[in-house]
Design a protein that fits this description.
Blueprint: H1 7-15, E1 42-43, H2 46-57, H3 69-72, H4 76-80, E2 83-84, E3 99-103, E4 114-119, E5 122-125, E6 133-134, H5 142-145, E7 152-158, E8 165-172, E9 176-179, E10 189-191, E11 194-195, E12 207-214, E13 223-230, E14 234-243, E15 248-258, E16 265-272, E17 274-276, E18 291-292, E19 296-300, E20 306-310, E21 318-325, E22 329-333, E23 354-359, E24 365-372, E25 383-389, E26 399-408, E27 419-427, E28 433-440, E29 453-459, E30 463-471, E31 477-485, E32 491-500, E33 503-504, E34 508-514
Parallel strand pairs: 4-12, 20-34
Antiparallel strand pairs: 1-5, 2-6, 3-7, 4-5, 7-8, 8-9, 9-10, 10-16, 11-16, 12-13, 13-14, 14-15, 15-26, 16-25, 17-18, 19-20, 19-22, 21-24, 22-23, 23-26, 24-25, 27-28, 28-31, 29-32, 30-31, 32-33, 32-34
Length: about 525
């Protein structure tokens, strides 16, 4: 099941249809609400969605029709009480290895989404049927039901055992979607596109207006879904290939048709939560040592450098840019994988997935942008990361991109270097800041001594002193510590790299200290 709604998700869902427009202006057959759809069965191919997105981009954005007010004002608990009837799951008992369950509207999930099923090249629209749900206290009247539509879907497949179909992917809300791999619990989210994130003028949240889900072939082990994205700035055609397993992979390809130049756009955007950890507990009164869905941003640059940037919950909004060309991958990872790191028997933070983005093809020059937003609660998603191309995406021309998402425990294809497993900080009696970084595995594991291991540490301001190397117990790796005299600097960028001879032995550790 989905976890608690977050503030960021609620804001996104509210903003996703904030641009007003008459429902009657929608082009027939493009993205009608399922309950009002008169679309007959029609031929479908991957080019179908591209053609629709192109046509859509040639006219102004029109907001979807509104869900009846009573459903928009449902409390979260009232909405959670609405259940899809499992005996009505799509493809149930057909032996294709997948089932779909649909989401009703309500609470912040009030943007209708059209859904078609595709079989043998023919698409068939799903009309909204209130009999698909147990509504609890929220049962619609006949008049209300005629104005309701689905708000998304979830996908089930044998994931943790062969005789049971687990939920492993969800598409619901704006262009958000989530996934899990074997043994995991839901955590961070991905999105179709990010526009104007953390900009003063306000963020634009594109929506998926319609999905086409292909009936799987028995034994194929994959599900294919297509989506039509829309916003005031852009329309787009998306294709998702979903492969559940030890690592749940999603192959994503998209063709974007900008209505206007996209000057601040995020490709492969990820959204997560970081409340506190050992690098910062200021103002935190909590029995748990750490609380987060992700603890760091990892980047494998086009030059082959492995970067680890611990996340922070800053006092003011922070944006960081990691300039690169043709990145090999980036992601928000959860490396703390044991219960003792969290001491939370309910949240299962140790089971939250990492999410790795692997570009397909050359993405050119740009930067991985990390946004860290202050939060005073773990229910708020406050971390965003994406690739921002250096050149704006021009209006009136199609823009194609492809990438692979891996919902996993650790990023696939990482360089054989020592990984940062913990980062800590505390105040010295002298007033300096002590930083402690644990590197484990790779060439730093199993060392008999530290001869030949050196540490490169630098700071953009202040002064670094007392760099110390110590072996970790059991030959796991090396602990690096240093003192930072911050002086009167309000912000300091820190960089640490362990070396073994002339080769980097561990990830490049980057961190932004703020006063």
């Amino acid at each position: 099941m989905l976890g608690p709604l977050t503030r960021r998700a609620a804001l996104a869902l509210g903003a996703s249809f904030a641009v007003a427009g008459p429902a009657e202006a929608l082009a027939p057959g493009l993205f009608a609400v399922p309950a009002l759809s008169s679309q007959a069965r029609r031929r479908f191919s991957g080019k179908t969605v591209v053609d629709i997105a192109r046509q859509l981009s040639e006219r102004p954005f029109v907001a979807p029709p509104a869900t009846p007010e009573r459903f928009r004002t449902l409390s979260y608990s009232q909405y959670r009480a609405i259940r899809y009837r499992k005996d009505r799951a799509i493809w149930r008992g057909e032996g294709v290895g997948f089932e779909l369950e649909l989401f009703a509207p309500g609470s912040v999930f009030n943007t209708p989404v059209a859904i078609d099923l595709v079989q043998r090249g023919i698409s068939r629209p799903l009309a909204f049927d209130p009999e698909l749900f147990d509504w609890g206290e929220a049962a619609p009247t006949r008049e209300e039901a005629a104005r309701l539509g689905f708000t998304g879907f979830r996908v089930h497949s044998p994931l943790n055992r062969a005789d049971y179909l687990d939920e492993f992917a969800v598409f619901q809300g704006a262009s958000y979607f989530r996934g899990v791999a074997k043994g995991q619990a839901y955590g961070l989210s991905a999105r179709g596109l990010a526009i104007n994130t953390a900009q003063a003028a306000g963020e634009e949240f594109p929506i998926f207006r319609k999905f086409w889900v292909e009936r799987p072939t028995a034994g194929a082990g994959a599900l294919v879904a297509h989506a039509l994205l829309d916003s005031p700035s852009v329309a787009g055609a998306y294709r998702f290939g979903l492969y559940p397993g030890e690592v749940t992979a999603m192959e994503v390809s998209a063709t974007l048709f900008p209505r206007r130049a996209l000057t601040h756009v995020g490709l492969g955007p990820l959204t997560s939560m970081y409340f506190f950890g050992w690098l910062g507990r200021q103002g935190v009164d909590d029995f748990r040592p750490e609380v987060h869905d992700s603890d760091g941003l990892a980047i494998l640059t086009g030059r082959g450098e492995s970067i680890w940037r611990p996340l922070a919950n800053p006092r003011t909004l922070q944006a960081s840019a990691f300039v690169d060309e043709n990145p090999k991958g980036f992601g928000l990872l959860q490396r703390a994988r044991t219960l003792d790191r969290y001491q939370d028997l309910e949240a299962n933070y140790e089971r939250r997935p990492s999410l790795w983005v692997e570009p397909q093809g050359a993405w050119g020059r740009g930067w991985v942008e990390l946004i860290e937003i202050p939060t005073d609660s773990e229910v708020n998603d406050n971390i965003v990361a994406y690739w921002r191309p250096e050149a704006p995406i021009r209006a009136g021309r199609p823009f194609e991109l492809a990438y692979k998402l891996s919902w996993c425990a650790e990023a696939p294809g990482a360089a054989p270097l020592a990984r940062v497993t913990q980062s800590r900080s505390g105040k010295r009696e002298s007033g300096a800041r002590l930083f402690v970084i644990d590197y484990e595995g790779g060439p730093l594991a199993g060392l008999q001594g530290l001869d030949g291991v050196t540490v490169e540490a630098s700071a953009s301001a202040g002064r670094i002193d007392n760099i110390v190397r110590q072996p970790l117990p059991g030959g796991r790796g090396v602990r690096v510590s240093f003192d930072l005299d911050v002086g009167d600097a309000p912000l300091i960028e820190l960089r640490v790299v362990p070396w073994q001879g002339r080769a980097a032995a561990g990830e490049t550790w980057l961190y932004r200290w703020t006063a």
